[in-house]
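Something for you to look into today, if you have time. Just paste the record in under my message, thanks.
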Amino acid sequence: MIVKTISVVIPCFNCIQTIDKALQSVYDQDYKFIEIVCVDDCSTDNTYEHIKTNHPFVKLVKNDINLGPAASRNKGVRFCSGEFVAFLDADDIWFPNKTNIQIELMDKYGLDFIGASFTINTNDNPSTVSQFEIINLYNLAFKNYFPTPSVIMKRNLVCFNELQRFSEDYDLWLRLAKDKCIMGYVKTPLISLGKPSYGHSGLSSNLIKMQLGEISSINKNLKGKWICFFAISWSFIKFIRRLCVVFIRKL
């Protein structure tokens, strides 16, 4: 396997309590050819100073104004030198074999993009990949397979919509699938999220904004295709399920 450098972009906002653990999970990767770029999005808790003092090998970028995760990721990519770009959020972690497994699969199948499943607040490290599949636009229309911290992709493909504040990652994945990028999915969890993927704030307004972002992403990328109506209908069914899950959590 030809060695490829991966640049990981980590948006940071008031994450002084979690960033060390996130960075340590990158340091602990079996695959060692990794560049780290942290983008501080105007933190008020000394996150920037903490990273600068305690993590000298991290390439650190500071926003002049709060830009949000999409613009911060785009900005971070401009400071990357790796052939591939990965993403990690400051309260999530990678399992040690994550990048090694994904790079091997990218080589084996000629992938442009790869993501993986996740767990929540665990420290698993699977030794083997149980299942792998190629994902196309029609698969992705009904399910966002790719949590952003699980993704590795060719650097030239990264372009998040900075005007979209919710589901901007799903919008990019759909655009890439529409452009015939070869996308793979590892069903084995390779990351751990620090919080549930939705409903953790307890604010139904955020769920509504997420839903509107998802519908916008589907409509923009599938408009005119027969599958668009069914994808939007399924999205609303999932939204009702999410509301029920959040309601049950509150009981």
Q: What stands out?
A: The chain has a mean pLDDT of 91. The longest helix spans residues 227-250. Residues 6-196 form a domain with the Spore Coat Polysaccharide Biosynthesis Protein SpsA; Chain A fold (CATH 3.90.550.10).
